[in-house]
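We emphasize that the prediction below concerns an isolated chain of 407 residues; any contacts that depend on oligomerization or on bound cofactors are therefore not represented. The input was used exactly as deposited, without trimming of termini.
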Amino acid sequence: MKPNTRNGKRFNYLFGLINLAAVYCIVWLLWYVFMNPNAVMKLYDPFYGLSLILVFLVSIVLMTNVADFYPFQVKGSNAITQGIILVVVSLLLMLFIHYIFFWNFIGRFGVAYFSPQSIVTSGGIGADPLNARVIASRAILFFCATFLWWAMFWSLGFGRWPWCGMSRGVLAWSRFFTVMFFTVISYAILFHPVVCQFFYPAQNKAGVELWWISFTGTASPNFTMGLMFCILPWIVMSHLLWEGYPWKRLEENGEGTFVKGVVTFFGTAILGIISFGIMLKIMNIFLGEAFVGGQYTDGLDFRYMHTGEISVFFMLAATILKTYFNNFPNNLGLWARAVIRTVIALVGGLLVYFFYYSPATIFFLGCETGRGYPEDTPLAWAMLFLGIILIQEEFFQGHPLKRTEKS
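Result of the prediction step, given as a token string:
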């Protein structure tokens, strides 16, 4: 059993709640400045804003889960100073990935649809600046979502394998190129063909005919996106709420193994597929049977994407439980506390769901958040919230909720 403490002191749940409220205010302020369509920057259209937020989240995960903070020395350092440095680095990394790597490197010298300027220059129907930015943003979004999936899975499944005992630099670069390798392959199969369909005429010599149309009833990438985001919560929950189990039983000397990685991959994928199917059935009960050509909530494409959006709420709830409520409960056996935590995360995710689709959120976000509204996706707000929580927990080492010796 684990005591209900942090740093040897009884955990203060009231302080955790206050801390969560403060983080929510920070998220609201950032949304107001950058995303609110009626405020300052107005970056939320929604794909452009969502792609920026997801690239920002990827930059955080890249530094924490993939590079393990290399080349920085985090442990034992001043939490505030180190946190500020890491935030600045993650922001610069976000700008580099989005605007330099995708827009002005890959998009100019490799794959044109990653750059709005390259799409406009190529001409043709629909190659206006706004539509071009939407297409490029969606392509970046799909690629970064795939990277996020592989990075989080690799951290849970393989960990430092097969580079155990290697230097931090070797581990960071080896893991990065491995994750990128699988990301590129997965993206080419799951998303590249559908991006080629965004143009008229469709780029059928660059992308194959969509292989999922025959059994999904839609040519939308929402099927693959929704399924991917249904898998992610099980990776997060087994890492945070289940304390790495049951996959941890396959470790050797506290390190990941090939068997552990393979079992974790298929185990989380199976759980994701099951939850994907369950949520579709539940939506059929409450919203009626979806059908080909259905508009908004009656459309198959909406149903597939909505499963992923709901799943991100579960991810957010699980992260909040771990970070601000000390992974309650801690005074029971492993499986008892894992089950209770999972139930809390699922209920918490549903509460976040109802909050997001309430009039209160319309006021806070400055835009319509109704189910099926084409100009909104809760992925943006939830991913931004997750990113800010990760910054406090990872970059600032939990400060001020969790204090280190030098902070």
